[in-house]
């Protein structure tokens, strides 16, 4: 090899390394588009960097590397709060916890990596064709990530587009993955359009304005309508530090604290957060549950609270239980968190490294009806379950309110809380229902059907959010069709991209 060839090799190696670094930083910057930062345009700009870099490549493996770097940057910056649960509260040694998070983020990065590889492999043609291809591939990757190995759709790009984004109006129609596909389409169009040419630039600008206008218009459509009388609700935030919650000597203090908070905040519906009683219901002191619910029942209302239930077979459920004027009802969590709430096959060794209480739970049935509480029908979801819109819409159209019970104390003071509230905002828009949230350390809130956060308690404070809530009836297009609509949208984008490629070949006489 000559000196000149060596120099060219070094230049190419440096260019590749520089591209990977730019992709890594762009992925990390994408987190700023989500809560609590809310720099919404960064979602488009970050993906535009990935699309622009990938469009210059000729080998699929180069596109894979760029997508992997982008994904690694995004997930390391966006979900590294999982380290807090493993190390601080799970007791996993620091090096092992850091390695576990790195490997998990590397797994998540495989999905944008696949987009990058396929985009390079199939991405010939003009800007519009490649933008449609990029959008279709992105939709497919996020749908797959939401399903494979029970799914982990946290930081799906669409979540960044809550109001005031003009794309927020699309949530009730195509859901979060459809909105993510629109972001990917706009990103690729921005990156690949030759803006110095008048006609392509005008066409791209027209598409951007059209989607923004359509989203604005759809956001004004009343997909659902009020039903019944408003309900007086008290959403209680207990603020119990996770490291203290499971200490036996403090159990009586937590039981008395829950009872006191219920007494101090009367309402038609009083809600305590996930696992607010940190033990099995059948091990509670005699008469405690009756005492807990008595103030609410006395005024003709109902209490809903998180507790562990055990059935006749000995199976343990992370559940919500209602007591009060209405007949007692329960809901058992359906979508459990791997490693935190159950052990996947062949991973029993994981629990030798961590100490996670109540980590051998059983999945609740998938056809559980909403709780009938007075004149309202309340669909319960517990913590992580509200990431899965296609599962929440099973309760529709019967449910008039959505209620989430969460305990994010596992993740300390991190991005987890505002990111989770943003997810709840999307679920409210997808279902056309208010989303009530009662949490241990935050963020306890009322989200209206249009995604607006009507009220929220400060994180890491004890108190209650007392307000009047209106139930809603009817179905949004997303509630009617679920993710089948966005899957069709992704297939259509790929089909049109394929047609445009064949048409271009025909015109060139290929």
Keyphrases for this structure?
510 residues, 13 strands, globular
Written overview of the protein:
There is one protein chain. With 510 residues, the chain is an alpha/beta fold. Helix content is 47%, strand content 16%. It is built from 15 helices and 13 strands. It has helices at residues 3-30, 41-55, 60-78, 82-89, 94-122, 127-145, 171-192, 198-218, 242-245, 251-264, 288-298, 389-392, 416-431, 477-481, 483-507; strands at 225-237, 269-271, 277-280, 302-310, 316-324, 329-332, 371-373, 376-382, 401-406, 435-439, 445-447, 453-456, 463-473. Strands 1, 2, 3, 4, 5, 6 and 13 form a seven-stranded mixed β-sheet that branches. A six-stranded mixed β-sheet has the order 7-8-9-10-11-12, covered by helices on one side. A hairpin with a 4-residue loop joins strand 5 and strand 6. Helix 1 runs parallel beside helix 3. It is globular. The two termini are 38 Å apart. The mean pLDDT is 91.
Low-confidence stretches: none
What is the chain-wise order of helices and strands?
HHHHHHHHEHHEEHEEEEEHEHEEEEHH
Tertiary shape? globular
Mean pLDDT: 91
Report the helical percentage: 40-55%
Strand content: 15-25%
Distance between the termini: 38 Å
**Number of H/I helices:** 15
Number of strands: 13
Q: Biggest β-sheet: count, sense, barrel?
A: 7 strands, mixed
Spatial extent as radius of gyration: 25 Å
- Supply the helix-strand structural class: alpha/beta
């Amino acid at each position: 090899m000559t000196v000149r060839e060596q120099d060219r090799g070094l230049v190419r190696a440096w260019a590749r390394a520089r591209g990977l670094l730019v992709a890594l930083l762009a992925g990390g910057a994408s987190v700023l588009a989500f809560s609590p930062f809310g720099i919404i345009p960064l979602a488009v700009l970050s993906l535009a960097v990935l699309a622009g870099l990938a469009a210059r490549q000729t080998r699929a493996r180069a596109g894979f590397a760029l997508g992997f770097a982008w994904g690694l940057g995004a997930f390391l910056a966006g979900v590294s709060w999982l380290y807090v649960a493993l190390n601080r509260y799970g007791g996993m040694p620091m090096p092992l916890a850091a390695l576990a998070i790195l490997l998990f983020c590397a797994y998540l990065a495989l999905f944008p990596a696949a987009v990058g590889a396929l985009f390079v492999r199939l991405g010939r043609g003009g800007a519009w064709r490649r933008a449609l291809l990029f959008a279709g591939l992105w939709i497919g990757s996020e749908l797959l990530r939401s399903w494979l190995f029970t799914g982990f759709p946290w930081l799906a790009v669409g979540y960044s587009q809550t109001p005031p984004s003009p794309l927020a109006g699309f949530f009730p129609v195509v859901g979060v993955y459809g909105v993510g596909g629109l972001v990917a389409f706009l990103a690729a169009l921005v990156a690949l359009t030759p803006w110095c040419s008048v006609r392509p630039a005008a066409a791209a600008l027209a598409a951007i304005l059209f989607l923004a206008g359509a989203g604005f218009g759809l956001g004004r459509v009343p997909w659902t309508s009020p039903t019944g009388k408003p309900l007086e609700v008290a959403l209680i935030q207990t603020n119990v530090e996770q490291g203290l919650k499971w200490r036996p000597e403090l159990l009586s203090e937590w039981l008395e604290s829950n009872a006191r908070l219920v007494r101090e905040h009367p309402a038609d519906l009083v809600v305590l957060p996930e696992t607010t009683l940190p033990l099995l219901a059948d091990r509670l002191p005699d008469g405690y549950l009756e005492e807990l619910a008595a103030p609410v029942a006395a005024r003709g209302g109902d209490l809903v609270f998180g507790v562990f239930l055990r059935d006749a077979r000995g199976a343990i459920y992370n559940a919500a239980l209602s007591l009060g004027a209405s007949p007692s009802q329960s809901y058992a969590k359906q979508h459990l968190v791997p490693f935190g709430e159950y052990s996947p096959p062949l991973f029993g060794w994981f629990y030798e490294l961590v100490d996670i209480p109540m980590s051998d739970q059983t999945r609740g049935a998938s056809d559980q009806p909403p709780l009938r509480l007075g004149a309202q029908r309340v669909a319960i979801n517990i913590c992580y379950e509200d990431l899965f819109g296609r599962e929440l819409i099973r309760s529709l159209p019967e449910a008039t309110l959505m209620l989430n019970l969460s305990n994010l104390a596992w993740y300390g003071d991190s991005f987890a809380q505002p990111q989770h509230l943003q997810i709840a905002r999307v679920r409210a828009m997808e279902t056309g229902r208010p989303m009530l949230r009662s949490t241990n350390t935050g963020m306890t809130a009322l989200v209206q059907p249009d995604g607006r956060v009507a009220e929220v308690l400060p994180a890491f404070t004890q108190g209650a959010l007392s307000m009047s809530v209106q139930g809603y009836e009817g179905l949004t297009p997303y509630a009617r069709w679920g993710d089948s609509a966005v899957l069709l949208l992704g297939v259509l984008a790929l089909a049109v991209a394929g047609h445009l490629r064949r048409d271009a070949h025909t015109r060139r006489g290929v």
